[in-house]
Structures
1.
Amino acid sequence: MSSLVLDRVVVSAAGVDGVVEILSETSLEITEPSIALIGPNGSGKSTLARLFNGLVTPSSGRVVVDGIDVAQDGRRARQHVGFAFTDPSAQLVMPTVLEDVMLSLRRTHRDKGERRAAALAILEARGLAELADRSVHTLSGGQRQLVALTGVLACDPQVVVADEPTTLLDLANGRLVGDLLMGLPQQLVLCTHDLDLAARCDRALLIEGGRVVFDGPAPDAVDHYRATA
Amino acid sequence: MSSPTPSLLGDYTPGASWLHRLRAGAKLGVLMLVGLVVVLVREWWVGLAFVALALVLLAVAGVGVRRVLRTLRPLLVLLVVLVAYSLWRASWQVALEQAADLVALILLATVVTTTTAVDDILDVIVRALGPLRRLGVNPERVGLAFSLMIRSVPLVLTIAGETRDAARARGLERDPRVWLTPFVIRAIAHARDTGDALHARGLGDD
């Protein structure tokens, strides 16, 4: 498994009343296959998750992914860490499903024929081949999230960070996406409000007010959150 | 399933027509040439001739009448304003020419986008801009910007429809400020989200 390290990381931003600390000084190392980030809205979960892919830059401190300093070598870090967003609509940037997966492969497959074949094989492997020529506008919410995840996985990342991937989905699709994520061979960082899903991870961080207030086995963290929320 | 999204320019629909088989570069070149002719020749009948040509090509591409109408629906308000203004300031010939030119260009662009995969368009742009690499231009990035523009048209129309519906639900549809402000904010938020998604996938890093 990869090693994700936050070394005295602080994230702050300019607010109306001066500088606001979104994430207070945090140091931790993640080596478990799956870790959940849980906590109330606005607690800093997404900010923490986005650090690993370079989507958020720390105000101070270092983020290191398998020895790659994310601030120094963002390109390699992004190749290493895939990111799935809450709303897949923003993530699906091409008109059809096949084209969107092909877009992820442009860097690794320069030949168009190979790129197309590889994208079709990836869709086939995920059981999504029948959606290949569908417009992304016509997909259901669950299908959209599955296709968006497929686009992320097509880049062959070592780590997958998913930011509330089931929030916009109904129960059945939420389960489908949750099962897919929990079955991935990649290391998973899962930012979620779905506490049942979070409890299936190896470890969980409970984040409140920009601080990690509990760090331990996922079921214990979930129990702690339920007891204190 | 048909798209509920108003799809100005349409989406790529795989098919086996000769238009589908035609190279993307050739289609884009012809579209550019026809665009120049439509804009430079100021005769109403030329515009109408190109509308007729576009309708024939759409039929060849297998695009149905309902989809053509759906493509044109978002243009309706603009067309009415354009025609009314031209009738007031010029003549019926000018009004007809401008309306026909606009409809012809949109329909011809639809022929290209419905018969050409965006990936192919991206390849053409990247190839065409290749020589500019030494001047610091990143062809992949420019190609991606074009693809995103095509992708964003229906999305922006969807956001416009949703914000107008929200205003209508409160009985405020007559005040454009009520829906224009949230529309602009949501469109910008969507652009930022898309930027984040591209960044996360490492697209544009090359």
2.
Amino acid sequence: MAAATTLRLNGVEVGVTADVSTPLLYVLTDELQLLGPRFGCGLAQCGSCSVLVDGVETRSCVTPLSAVAGKQITTLEGLPMLYAQSKGLQSPPAYTPLQQALIDTQAIQCGYCSNGLQIKATELLMLNANPSEQEIRTAMNGHLCRCGTYPKILEAIQLAASTIRGEA
Amino acid sequence: MSNFTLNRRDLLKAGGALVVTFPLLPRGTTAQTQMREPQPGPPAADQIDSWIAIHSDNTATVYIGFAELGQGASTALLQVAAEELDLGMDQIRTVGLDTHLTPNQGGTYSSQAMRRGGPQVQRAAAEARQALLALAATQLQIPLASLRVENGIVSGSGDDNVFTTYGELIGDRRFNLAFTGTAPVKDPSSYKLVTKPLPRNDIPPKANGTYQFMQHQRLPGMLHGRIVRPRGQGAYKDGIQVVSIDESSIAGIGDARVLRQGNFVGVVATREWDAVRAAQQLNLTWNQPESLPGNADLFVRMEQSPPDDRVAREEGDLSVISAAAVTTGFTGYGPYQAHVPFAPNCALADVQTDTALVLCSTQDVYGTRGKLAALLGLQPPQVRVQYVEGAGTFGHSCWDDCAQAAALLSQLAGAPVRLQFMRWDEHGWDTYGPAHLGKVKASATADGKLLTYEYEGWQHHWSFVETTEQTSKGTPAAEWPAMAAQQINPLVLGGQYRIPNIKLLNHHVPGVDYLKGAWLRSPLDLALTFVSEQAIDDLAFQLGIDPYQFRLQNIADDRWQGVLDGAARAAQWQPKQAAQNLSSDEVVTGRGIGLGTHLASWGGAVAELEVNKRTGVVRILHLYGAIDAGRVVNPSNVENQIISQLIQTASRMLHEEVAFNTTNVTSLDWQSYPILRFMEAPQVTAVIVQHIEQEPLGAGEEVMAAAAAAIANAFFDATGKRMTAFPFTPARVLTALM
């Protein structure tokens, strides 16, 4: 049955009316019209739909709405704000260090997987701003890219980590 | 001599600052903001106005008939246009492909964007500039020959206060000029933008999540649709055979309802989750004939097909093989492989009585329009098709089928419908890259010269009729007529070398008896060089010659030598006979080299890998890929294309194989059809062999065949055994090592 649920999304409380068994992904893309989380497999296999739930990378395509009520949800749209908070900045930057690194290394091709890659890499860099190559590869292994950008994504994450460390 | 541009990060150091707005369809609307009024296309190719519009603010819109697929075509083609127009990159933009706006340059495939599209855009821009300068000469009273242009500002009197701009000369008015193609183009030595690694205009919005993909498009009042099909296709000729549908099985799932025409079944609902659930819960029974050979009997059945043969190349006399010092014979197998874009295809359709609007991720808006018109009972000009980028497709994935299904659902529902294919729809109903069986026999003389070469290849063509049309209208399955990319490719079957006696024989297999097929990035080539380049390698081995050296002494021409040397130098290749360091270690390493391309350009590659002889796991350590694509307009883009090809080739050689039994495909997701993961990604080195003086050729698929061959040859170097089939799964590897 459709019911009213309040979500804490990117720092703002928003109300949605949907069946509480609805996967969070469809609420974010259809009810709230977000562009970040996006459908890829619906099976939690690819990482396209990932969001941060209380800082933990979560596959929104298999996470029912009922499971996230009251939790902090951060999507791609909220990453600049999250970064500003973590660094005590006055306002969110236009691009996070990771986004700027993706631009500087020209790492993105079709870019559809970029949402999930950024969510996962953000989770990693919040925990460890100086990850080894192996730690990056391990963290990112559950996120697929069909265009074959893994080497450039690796380079971008390393570049972003150095930027973040430099700003610390 | 060739100019080698090795992969260097400082190529990209200029990146990041230049942001050109890439116009996108506004969410929830299809209104276009540029001055041209949409009307059924294609716009006349022989009019300058069909290609270029100059605006009052001294900017230009270039109408391009090629799709941005994440390969950077939109940026590179704008570089070409801006170069000829003497505009800055921040003064020029393009619009999305649209049958009501953009010219018909054919589909964005076969790496044609720069090869065919580049010269058209270049000449149109040059001719527009010529017309603008004539106007300026009159207005400024300065002789034409004295005029100069910078950033669309025309001057030439020596007085800085005397100038005009393109915007003043013609801003937002039409040229009304025939496009003759006769205006002189710039000398490559004067290029300011072309050949520069400019940053791609689509990356910043893709990075910050403001880019709107096909999957983000919405229309007011639309329903969400899903198709309902068996999980995994059967034989193409069998289509789908519905036995019964129990519509009551979805009662209570919101307002979800079943739509059906013939054997085409779909559901629509106001809420997307309702449509998803209804499609999964709908109780149907299908008739699924046991028509397929299954993976086990695939190649036996292909080889036993009734003869439908064509000689692709024949020169000299193969009987001289009796004089050869060494001979080799090799049979190899390439699997069906899937496109499977990271996001399944999506389409949005609004079909009315006498018009239709369809948004989809087609690589060919005009081709898709024709098929849609036929399906809907409309004339092509009544159908408007707009391209919106989805996830990278790498050939003919399900975009035509998805567009047709969305349109049919909209027609049946009487409302706009957004259709998102589910993962199993895309995996299970793809038009796969066809399987290939190849047999090669080759020989060489004692002094290391190739003497004879004979190749026979079996495969079917591409599917012409989409499943939606087949199931809804009963149109019989049919293949495309023979075309180059559907058959064995002389360029990669011995074409890399001087071989006096050669015969290539193509065996066409009747495709309707097998899985659906279509072009997948570098169609057939990976399988062709997997077979052929292993034979070349074996001759070198038997002669005791280093495989690079053997190729060099038989090389066909300078262009092939350029990529052979490019890859070898990047890899710091040290000559030695292959498989001379075999060890009893559990993990052994090897390196291999290969040459190949698609239908143009030249590719060379070196692979370094390790094989775990206990587990059968192959790990590719480093791939070096060199491409000569003539003039490379944007080296940064091509570097990315090479990296992408190398990673995808690793994926296709190690993991990718469509599994099917006698009734249907069973590769339905990323677990049953695994691709390369982050942990496994090898190091990559991209080498661009730049020829500024040459016309641009394709660079999006021309090093994969070389890389596939290099991987196969590296396996031999490591183990002394030859793989006869790919992907190199642990089971296959362990069998080969026995």
3.
Amino acid sequence: MIFVSVVLSAFAAVTLWWTMHAWRTPETLAATRFAPPDGEQHLTFSLLVPARHEQAVLEHTVQRLLRSTHEAFEIIIIVGHDDPETAEVAGRVARTAPARILVVTDHNEVKNKPRALNTALPYARGTVVGVFDAEDQVHPELLEHVDHAFRSTGADVVQGGVQLINFHSSWYSLHNCLEYFFWFRSRLHLHAKKGFIPLGGNTVFVRTDVLRRANGWDGTCLAEDCDLGVRLSSRGAKVVVAYDSTIVTREETPGSLAALLKQRTRWNQGFLQVLRKGEWRRLPALRQRLLARYTLTGPFVQAFSGVVIPVGVAVALWARLPVFVALLTFLPVLPMAATLMFQVVGLRDFGKEYDLRIKWHHYVRLVAGAFPYAVVLAVAALRAVWREYTGRRDWELTAHLGAHLEGSPA
Amino acid sequence: MTAVELAEPVSVVPAAVDDVRPRKLTRNADLVIALGLTAVIVALLAWNIAGFPSASDDEGTYLAQAWAVQHGRGLAHYTYWYDHPPLAWIQLAGLSWLPALLAPKLIAVAAGRIAMLPVQAAGLLLVYLVSRRIGLPRWAASLALVTYGLSPLYLTMGRQIYLDWFAVVWILGALALALSPRKHLWHFAAAGAATAVAILSKETIAVILPAVLVAMWQSSARSSTRPWAFGAFVSGLVLVGCFYPLYAVLRGELFPGPGHVSLIGAWEFQLGSRAGSGSVFSSGSGASSLLHSWLYYDAVILIAGAAACFAGLALRRVRPVALAGAILVVVALRPGGYLPAMYVVQVLPFFAMAIAGIAAWAVTVLRPGRVWWRRAVLGTVILLCVGAVAPRWYVGDRRALTADDNAPYARAADYLRGQLPGREGATVVVDDVLWLDCVNAGYPPDKVIWFYKIDLDSAVAKRLPDGWRDVDYVVSTPAMRQDPNSLPTVRTLLTNSTVIASFGPQGGQIEIRRVDKETK
């Protein structure tokens, strides 16, 4: 019991330390932002938008992409051959801007996002490939910022920020939004600095030649984004992360708890697959390999501790343990409670950066929902392990309703 | 065609080196000054530490509790009743084994005092560091350290074992962290944790929490991370601090109830039922005589420091330390409260820093480098100050270095160690100072009893079924004779016993008395 609580508190403390990376000092916080663009445009972009049963949101997404202030970009929409509704929307949008938009049909029998992306890769003409999801709300100035980021840093990969916005939709969406906030605002920057980064699924930009040399995405992996990041990191690609709340890509949380569970299961299982693939073993430094191992197993330990710590505390309170042992079981609560404290501060910051009105009951919800959310994460982690070891590796898609779009009911 | 001489570009590398070296030198200079002054003052503290001042009951109490922690007997060798949070004597337990190992001949209190010297050294260094971090120049930080360390009040109280010293060191550490120039998030979290440790070392230090908050507020001004800094501070403070009530909860001793002590019950006693020591303004009250005893040792630092604290509130950089001092003054002046004898311990470092802060401000305003007469004014003021302070401090400090007030205690401890007839199995009633000496001399700990526990602790009374007749010896000291009416059993013991050995002068003597069980 003592051993478990010491290990768990060490883990939670390290996670907290890394999660708070961006806010360590005012200087680190300033360094996480996009540098303001210089107004020049030198790169050409191919923006891949895989869409599957997403006819409801696709058109809006593409229209917004078309409003981009950058001159040189094309949009490649990838639709499945068995999905006429989405194909119909894609075709209609393409006709509004035939010079900019190309629709590619994916004929793979088994459909998933990496296969769709790989289908489109040969058609990409730009020097940089960018990936967006069909429900993304992309800021018109994003491409200019990315163009500048590539040129000023000499990067091979630029990861832009992604943020879930609809924190008010449900109790879990609040936690989900904050997870994104902490991940993109802070944690990813640490990974970029240390040279090991699991990339995000969208608003990620890779130099086309680098991507082609890496043979594109892994069509069998459930977390193709993470896998790509790991493979590029281990080949020594330079990854830059930049976050700016004004040009961040806005997304929505999964529409139901079941959808969240599925999505999280898929990610977790994907992380497991990446771990088992072992590409990360090629990372040059031991520290990087340790970070890789830690990050890829992270969701499982986190899920485990999120449930075990409160249970341990309950045991300590009700079972008659020696006082010293009982006090020790409270040790992991320190980083856990501190995490919650920082989430409260983070929620306030989140509201300020995105101009959202955070009310007192949101804070209450945040604190009250912490344990249930940890349970959800734990269930997803268990489910992922179960599916991976029973060999169920199919792609469970998350449905999108458009709750993050402007004018949607709050 | 004429060749144009191109100007040599300014070399960049040497400039960088030029920049680095002074900074390193600066840091080293600070280190040398602070360590040097601290070493001198710690040497002054250590000189005659066993002889002056006379051992007080409180010192014995804390040492005995540290002994209980060291020997795995819980937080106290009697029932721990949440009188104070235990962290200070837990820390003392971590330090006090060393002098006992090096000099076993010393009486326990003297050994304990030596164990406190590292704590004093840390406090002195932190006074310098905090002074530097509130923006004082090196000379002013040194002035703060010297004012603090050479004050006869410090050289007296600084030798004694008080929980407050731990609290002072930790709160100074919290201030230093809160004022950290790097504004690192974890420094702020550590500042919160240090504040919590300070409060768990001595609860009364909690009143200067606002000073730490002001320091944090100033330090994170115009910074994008201020809310995070406060989040980190609060996390550190609350999460470390909550372990104390948690301990009470786990033992089922949070709320008052029949048959057990409780945390909240102890608080109720401390805040509500404890008799106040009167106002410092009404002569004859406990608080007033206490203040006069402090003023007797050193009026300079108390009067100048109090004035400097209130003046320092107007200066932005000095405000955190000035606020701490000012709060402590206001709390001490509140009517009807309880003023503990060691209260001044918490006050001294802040007074010293405020004095230095005001001095630094005055020099900056005067700008003596400009005109000769300003330099003359400054010189005169310095001469006057030194002339006024030095003789007083010389007298006070010399007393601290030469007086031998604890000889009777040392001889009584010697006697108890070797000459007491029939000591095997004897039950001895002593004061807190000699308790640990008896235990160290081999008396079984449950046969040596603090005198007031006979009357006040039901668990102790149970061990003596025949009441006072179960006691074989009583060691009478001034502390025991101070208030005989409140402790009936002790009074009975003193009247029904004969002196077999006596040490020290009339009035302050320590008597070893054998209890006369036959008389009625």
